[in-house]
Amino acid sequence: MPINIRQIGPCFAGEVDGIxxxxxxxxxxxxxxxxxxxxxxVLVFHGAPLSQEExxxxxxxxxxxxxxxxxxxxxxxxxxxxxxxxxxSNLGKDDKPYARDDRRRLFAIxxxxxxxxxxxxxxxxxxxxxxxxxxxxxxxxxxxxxMPAAYDALDDEMKASIxxxxxxxxxxxxxxxxxxxxxxxxxxxxxxxxxxxxxxxxPTTNRKSLYLSSHAGKILGMxxxxxxxxxxxxxxHATHERFVHVHKWQVGDLxxxxxxxxxxxxxxxxxxxxxxxxxxxxxxEGPTVARQVx
Length: 294
Description:
By secondary structure, the protein is of the alpha+beta class. It has one domain: Double-stranded beta-helix. Helices cover 24% and strands 22% of the residues. The chain has helices at 27-40, 52-60, 103-108, 147-152, 156-162, 171-177, 185-190, 224-238, and strands spanning 4-7, 14-17, 42-45, 86-87, 127-134, 142-146, 166-169, 194-197, 199-201, 208-210, 216-219, 244-247, 254-258, 262-266, 276-281. It has a seven-stranded mixed beta sheet with strand order 1-2-3-13-5-15-4, covered by helices on one side. A hairpin with a 6-residue loop joins strand 1 (4-7) and strand 2. The radius of gyration is 18 Å and the shape is globular.
């Protein structure tokens, strides 16, 4: 059965039929998924929950993995998953939800801001593949914003003014926005800012996109208050409902998104209920600017 993709978002996002993610992916099907990602930027797969091995096998059939080491506040002895997975759950190693005031939970609340995965790394991510093993009784949606359309909708004067701007990205910038300042010296060193272009071009479609994220906290050569107001204005523009698709999770869903074309955010959910979400990430092609460390 050939893969079929039906558009479900306002100007992007597709729902995929005709594929069983538990079976090995043929080269032809892998190419069809890449083509679908270029066109839709977000692909939704419904089905039975995948095992960890099935999730990883599907990911590797699409490209090279990005490891998640050092991107959260979980100590090595506290992790539930191997370093090839990002644990996007609210669960500790005991498989129970974190306490409301647990600093690991409070750090993760930053994911409710609009962001792009791994924009705080020298080489930012390509695809993210998030799989739902358990969901809460309400809330917990993921919202996606389509950055090529947001860029296209800017006026020519704004496009010209931001064309060559370079931002500094760090998880400290995003967490400080929600009032989280509880970083150790080691964490501040680990989350040192990196530089990313504010406008980037997709290597396959050749379309320009805004490259925004709550991780962006400074713009080179611009006073910080002015830079943050510009980033806020651009984010408000880029997350207008005409550019946004909302995914309501069901157990077994796997959603892939292209971080080069989208921003996303998680929404609030009952904190005492289990939400087990696991993400693999494909490595990006390279830095967006030549000089990286801020």
